[in-house]
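SAMPLE LOG
Freezer: B-3
Tube label: C17
Construct: single chain, 249 aa
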Amino acid sequence: MKIIGDGCRVFDADEGEVTRQGTWTARARICHATGAEKVTQTVNEYAPGKSPAVLNPVAEEVLYVVSGTGSCQIDGIAHDLRPGTGVYIPPGSEYVVENTSSQPMKIVSACCPEDPGRVVREEAARTASSASRQLTVNEADRKTLPATAGREFRLLVDKDLGCEQVTQFVGWIPPSTAPFHHHTYEEGVFILDGHGIVHAGDESCEFGPGTSIYLPVGVTHCLENPGTSPVRVLGVFFPSGSPAAAYQK
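STRUCTURE (predicted):
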């Protein structure tokens, strides 16, 4: 982990504390232990089969499928998963990820705020007892919206899915350098595709696919794309709002 500027943290693709439970391997990056306040980010890999069950008593959790196919069973109801799918896990809900393919499934998750009462058990304790509600969305079905300096984004999990405190989005950074700016929310970024440079204060750090970036509230920063093709990012921030809301230095 590298710390630049006023608390910006950059994690390489091979960094993070690793835990393994059944088919599920989790690499924790952004959390209290690494300096975050509310936002967390974990890079997860699921082998074929069903994962242990997870329940957050008070926190909202969002998932994003980077690769692989399967389902997420939330309180006993199955929701299809494919690349580009965002998933909302309401507080108090139990979920299980099932990888139905022969290849590993990669999912980036964020739990906001970090829930000290989080429960992980070998099998689900709940069965479907109510009508299904929409808890997933795929980026292919979302509109592309403009942000600052020619950037674009698509909202994934947001208030329209019932998520009150967290916003999840996918964004594209064209070859450019944005003006230095800051946000009123705390943000965790995961680099899906492309290489670039994150600047914070008078310091900078290179990033590539699999890099995680933590941005505290109010930290002045910019992400530079010096290449010839767009950089694609996954972002999650707390409290919820618009990715286009940026305040210049």
